[in-house]
Structure formats: structure tokens, C-alpha cells
Amino acid sequence: MTFSQRYFNFGDKEKKLKELKYCASKKKLLKKITNVSFGFIEDLYKKNFDIIFSASKTLKKFDNILFLGTGGSSLGGKTLVSLVGNIFYNSTKPRIYFIENIDENSILQLLKKINLASTGIVVTSKSGETIETISQYFFVENFYQKKKISLKKRVFIITENKNSILKEIQENRGYFFLEHPSLVGGRYSVFSVVGLLPAALVGFDIKEFCNGAKSFLKKVQNEKNFDYFFFSALTIFNLNKKRINMSVIMPYSDSLNYLSFWYRQLWAESIGKKRKGITPINALGTVDQHSQLQLYLDGPKDKIFTIIGRKLNKNLSYLDCSISKKKKYSVMHAKSLDQLLYAEMKATIKSLKNQKLPVRTILIDSINEKSIGSLMMFFFIETILCCDLFNLNPFNQPAVEEGKKLAKIYLKK
User: CATH number for the 42-204 domain, one of 3.30.70.100, 3.20.20.30, 3.30.420.40, 3.40.50.10490?
Assistant: First the structure.
């Protein structure tokens, strides 16, 4: 098992697991997992790694690589890339830059900073019509044109193989093409080429990552294991009836910081519909103990907490906290930063428990490709199960379509 869970202040587990609604949802979901009825699972099992490795080999010739895209087209890949080198992943080549927003100033600053001639570009949009991504592309193209540098043989387009603005650009310009699986939505695309290509570029073992996901899917086909992992979804559903409608995810590791942003999109877009839902809030231990924890402990009791940590490292650097030959700062002397991090995590969990707040802990054996593959697949299935309990479609996001239409109307004025 690559990670384990514990629950505190979640109520009577055995009694809740017998609820008819949960039993019906579990039966439905287990059947779909077994029959490979979800697009992201089908894509996982049909994976052609050679296509990804071939694209990665071409892109590794560049010193810099720009990934243009937003939402699910960037968050998964960004999470995997950050796991390899943490917040310092751009210290080695190729340097990876995710352009997610359409803030002209920040994009311009980046383009002026890097060597354009030694830069590759990957543009990702499932529909091929995402206005922000298309605009990012034309901004970068225009900048290259002004510098009289050709984009030929340096641009990869990831989109569905159908008529779209982005597919037309790819065909018209003769760019490399990588097909976005049509049955996989953006926020469920981390196990597809969308997430795996940037990960492969920084040495992330994408095969082991996918193996972790497959291993988890096999494990939860056992009903006892399913209940162990997904009691959380049932509790979230039941607590929502008591107006507990916020979910705080708080990893105690810089390596997992972007995971909480990825989770935030997955949860918000999947479950926030028809005036139902749980608002996801991302935090980082220990940083947000000094900015949010006061509210969590002493504010409204309207939140459920997920604390994610890892087991202590064996190879630790111990601190010498001698102030002088005679005096030492005794609390931390001969301790490691890892030990302090772990102690702070335990203290936060205990403080939340003492306030009778619902807390789930996820302890990862080791932060590696297999464990993260298992964990991200777990979050996929948990989200879908929770949506089924709320009678919601986990794969659409109808409300945001209005904003897209309005933005185009305002542009025409």
C-alpha cells in the first residue's frame, strides 16, 4: 500500500457504510471500474508510451520549453513536474515554463528573459477552441515573428483530432500533432499525454506513475478496500447535510503543494453544480499555520480537513543549535527539519481533533511516481463517487460556458 488513511470525528463507520445510497453508488462505480467504462481509465490501459517518449526526445533538444494552456491542460503536468525538483525544478535543462494566464506583462517578461531560438513550445487545449490558449499562442507567435525566428519544428499541438481553431493552426503551420483523447476531460487528463509529456521531460518515471494508478484501481475492486478508501466520500456527503460545506486540503510537503491546486480544480468543477457542492480550499503546512489555522480552529465549524504527509526520511541532516559552547537552543538541537515538519503536522491534526472537527489524514510511504499515481487516481474515484451521491455529473462544467460567451460578446464591442 503506497498510502494509508485515518479518520477522526467522522462518526460510526460501520453503520454509515450500510446506507443504501452509498451501497448503490458503490455497486455502480465498481462495475464501471471493472468494465473500464471511464475514458480516463480506458486511456490509461491503452497507453502508447512510445509517442510520448518520441515527442520528449524532440523537445529535449531545447534549453527551454513553454507549455501554453490553462486549467486541466496545465495543472496536472505542473503538479508532476514540481514533484521531481520541487520549487527548484528549473535549475536543470530543459527548463519548463507553464504559461497559464493571459497577463501580457508576465508573458512578455518571460519571452524577453529566455533564448527564443533554443525554446520549444507545447500548446494544449482539448477542444482546440479555448480562447485564452489560442490568444497565448498568437501572442507568442507574434513575438517570434518580430524577432524573425521561425516556429517550424519547435511547436507541438495537443488537441482532439477534429476541426477546431487549434487543429487548423497545426495543419496550416505544419506543427507536430499529439492527439488529446476525446473521452478524457481536461481535469481528468493527468494520466494522458497532457500530463505525461511535461513529466517525461524532467525525468519523471511516467510508466511507474501509471502503474501506481493501475495498482490502485485493481486494489479497490475488492469491496473491503473500496470501503476503506472511500468512506471519506460518504462522510463528505453526510456532513454536507449539516452545512459543513468546505474542504481544506493541507499537504505538509513543498513537493505536494501543486497537488492541492490540481485537487482544487478537480473538486470544484466536478461537484459544484445545481447549488450543491463543497468548496475546496488549498493550504500548505507549515506555512498556512501562520495564516489560516487560527480560522480553522476557532472559526465556524463548516469545514472538513484532509492533512497529507509522508513518513520520515531515513537520511536526515541534524541541526547544531549551539549558541555558544555553553548554551544550546535545546528544542531543535540534534533534530532535523523533517522531524520538526512531522511534529508540526501531528500537532495540527491533534489541535483539529480536539476542536471536534472532522479530519482525514493521508500518510504516504514515500513521495515517488507510484505513490502519486495511486493518490491522484484515488482522488479521481473519490470525486466521482461523491458526485454520484449528490446526483451530479462529474464530467461537465455547464455554468462556466456563459462566461465564455459573454467574454466574446464584450470583445466585439
Answer: 3.40.50.10490
Q: What is the pLDDT of residue 307?
A: 98
| d(C-alpha 136, C-alpha 111), whole Å | 12
Active site residues: 269, 290, 404
366: phi then psi, degrees, rounded to nearest 5: -155, 140
- Taking the C-alpha atoms of residue 302 and residue 243, their distance in angstroms, rounded to an integer, is 6
The tens digit of pLDDT for each residue in 153-187 reads 999 999 999 999 999 999 999 999 999 999 999 99
**pTM metric for this prediction:** 0.94
CATH of the structural domain 3-34+209-387, one choice from 3.40.50.10490, 3.40.50.2000, 2.60.120.10, 3.40.190.10: 3.40.50.10490
What residues contact residue 347 under an 8 Å CB cut-off, 6+ apart?
A: none
The DSSP code sequence of 62-77 is SSEEEEE--GGGTHHH
Bridge partners (DSSP) listed for residue 176: 156
Residue 362's nearest CA partner among 6, 110, 1 is 6
Determine what percent of the chain is predicted with pLDDT higher than 70.
97
